[in-house]
Specification:
The chain is α+β, with helices and mostly antiparallel strands and 141 residues long. It has one domain: Nuclear Transport Factor 2, Chain: A (Roll). It is built from four helices and six strands, in the order ααββαββββα. A six-stranded mixed β-sheet has the order 2-1-6-5-4-3.
Length: 141
């Protein structure tokens, strides 16, 4: 696939899969994850080792469902996307309320995807968990 096709795959992941899990299109979003992710999809956070990473498409789908439960009214914005070869870099923003605390969150992070055979095979996410945790527990105006 071309770099442009790989970039379109990542855009589709955010627009049709991640952003729709909290709403009435949940089943379609999960079915799309089956289409977009390799069986052996792996997700790393920050400095995760291979042993610490989340392995498998089923694991990632469970992560997405849990995320949608914790942030049911999430709004995702892809702010920048760059593709070269089989790698797609993405800077994104999520705005939402935490379901348990009611606190508003506004977080930016960066993802690096690797595409293999027309599907997403790897995600390396760089996210400030400390900042996210602080926003979840205190009300923001």
């Amino acid at each position: 696939m071309s770099a442009e096709e790989n970039a379109a795959l990542v855009r589709r992941y955010f627009a049709e899969c991640v952003a729709r899990l909290g709403g009435p299109d949940r089943d379609r979003a999960l079915a799309l994850a089956d289409e977009l992710l390799t069986d052996d999809f792996v997700m790393f956070y920050n400095n995760d080792t291979d042993e610490e990473a989340g392995h498998g498409r089923t694991h990632h789908k469970a992560f997405l469902v849990t995320h949608a439960r914790n942030f049911p009214d999430d709004h995702w914005t892809v702010e920048a996307l760059v593709a070269e070869g089989d790698t797609v870099a993405c800077r994104w923003r999520i705005q939402s309320k935490h379901a348990r605390t009611g606190s508003s969150i506004d977080v930016r992070a960066a993802d690096f995807f690797r595409v293999r055979d027309g599907r997403l095979a790897e995600l390396r996410r760089f996210l400030d968990f400390k900042g996210l945790d602080q926003q979840k527990v205190r009300p923001r105006t």
